[in-house]
Amino acid sequence: EVQLVQSGAEVKKAGESLKISCKASGYKFTTYWIAWVRQMPGKGLQWMGIVYPGDSDTRYGPSFQGQVTISADKSITTAYLQWSSLKASDTAMYYCARRIATSSGYYMDVWGKGTTVTVSS
Amino acid sequence: QSVLTQPPSVSGAPGQRVTISCTGSNSNTGAGYDVHWYQQLPGTAPRLLIYGNSNRPSGVPDRFSGSKSGTSASLAISGLQAEDEADYYCQSYDTSLSDYVFGAGTKVTVL
Predict the structure, then answer these.
(1) Which residues, at least 6 apart from A58, have a Cβ–Cβ distance to it below 8 Å?
(2) What span, in angstroms and rounded, lies between the C-alpha atoms of B102 and B4?
(3) Which letter does DSSP use for residue B103 in this model?
(4) Shortest CA distance to B72 belongs to which of B103, B98, B96?
(5) Which has the closest alpha carbon to A23: A99, A101, A96?
(6) B99 touches chain A (CB under 8 A)
(7) pLDDT at residue number A99
(8) In percent, how much of chain B has pLDDT > 90?
(9) Contact B51/A113, CB-based, under 8 Å?
(10) How would you classify the pairing of strands B9-12 and B106-110?
(11) How far apart are CA A50 and CA B15, in angstroms?
């Protein structure tokens, strides 16, 4: 069974750093991109970026470029999302998901349960 | 403002059929990129409901169906059930933004 298991909830202060994780199992980790998606409280879904664990190639959404760092460690089949200096506006639920590419687009077929990040000012 | 436009809410009685529209533009849905749909039950992660405009993943009931024409797509739920109360999001890819785009979501209420 394909699974993405995310790390637990985090409570941080503004200015602190943070790295959350997403451990994959049940498929060949190095052959699928992993996406990160943000959901702010009471709001919709926003795509943040993706990483290809095979060679660590990374792409970022325009709103998130320079704001976060996405990475992966293929030796432990885990993807990461990190911040160097959190802001209160980073308070949200963060989901990782496996990305599927077709000849006419991209979608996310398996999702993690999410990691809640709360940042106090 | 979301790049893909969905109605904020739709409602229906049990057993009825409801549809949710998703309208894009020439840089996403109109450019030939597929539309995909996700269901998010309260307090849970999104779940893939429809991919490639009209395909259901294994385990998704055939009460859910999707279609696309031009810049617009729609999700239909027939035989509405109480367990279908959720938020539904459409998603595509935008070539101008080089970004994966979601609609703002539609809340389905079963009366």
Answers:
(1) A49, A50, A51, A52, A70, A71
(2) 6
(3) B
(4) B103
(5) A96
(6) yes
(7) 97
(8) 95
(9) no
(10) parallel
(11) 40
With CB atoms and an 8 Å threshold, state whether A62 touches B36: no
Residue A2 tokens read as 């394909």
Q: Which two tokens stand for residue A119?
A: 């940042």
Residue at B13: amino acid letter? A
Residues of B in contact with A61 (CB under 8 A): 99-100
Biggest alpha carbon–alpha carbon distance for chain B: 41
pLDDT in tens, A25-80: 999 999 999 999 999 999 999 999 999 999 999 999 999 999 999 999 999 999 99
pLDDT digits (tens, 9 = 90+) for B55-108: 999 999 999 999 999 999 999 999 999 999 999 999 999 999 888 999 999 999
Distance CA A117, CA B104 (A): 21
How many alpha carbons lie under 13 Å from residue A109 in its C-beta half-sphere?
Answer: 19
